[in-house]
Specification:
This protein is mainly alpha-helical. It has one domain: Cytochrome c/b562 (Four Helix Bundle (Hemerythrin (Met), subunit A), Up-down Bundle), CATH 1.20.120. The protein is built from five helices and no strands. It has helices spanning about 1-45, 55-70, 90-95, 95-115, 120-140.
């Protein structure tokens, strides 16, 4: 009886850990997808494919300011080998740089929120925010074909 309870407890702990790991990965992926969704209209405005809309820009910048502070905390060591993730091991090998890039994006987005008032300031400031995406993806995300 004790052995059965012990095995059941171990299984429960293992299932709980797997669910927690999956949940953290899903949380960070959701934050990244939200950022990607904000990048599309902003990018279209940058390319002149969509008219400048300060409200959309500010909404995007709010996401770019908030999400990086959240997602850098969602890479615990036990998710290093999680399936269905594009995170590279370099995140855990160089956690300080990863967190620094997330914090820089957040800070750059906050600066842009205060500085973007019209299309001219948007075209000057927005690339500074968006370059953070590429900097992080180049080093910490698997390349997709």
């Amino acid at each position: 009886m004790k052995r059965t309870m012990f095995v059941a407890s171990l299984l429960a702990i293992g299932v709980t850990a797997a669910i927690a790991q999956s949940n953290v990965v899903e949380q960070r992926q959701a934050l990244m997808k939200e950022m990607g969704a904000q990048t599309r209209p902003v990018g279209a405005m940058m390319r002149g494919q969509e008219p400048f809309d300060l409200a959309k820009v500010q909404a995007g910048l709010k996401v770019f300011a908030e999400n990086p502070k959240k997602f850098v905390t969602l890479f615990p060591e036990n998710t290093k080998d999680a399936p269905k993730t594009e995170a590279l091991p370099t995140i855990w090998e160089n956690k300080a740089k990863f967190e620094s890039l997330g914090n820089k994006m957040s800070q750059d987005a906050q600066t842009a929120m205060a500085g973007i008032k019209d299309e001219a300031s948007f075209k000057t400031e927005m690339p500074k925010v968006l370059q953070n995406c590429g900097a992080c993806h180049n080093e910490f995300r698997k390349k997709t074909s």
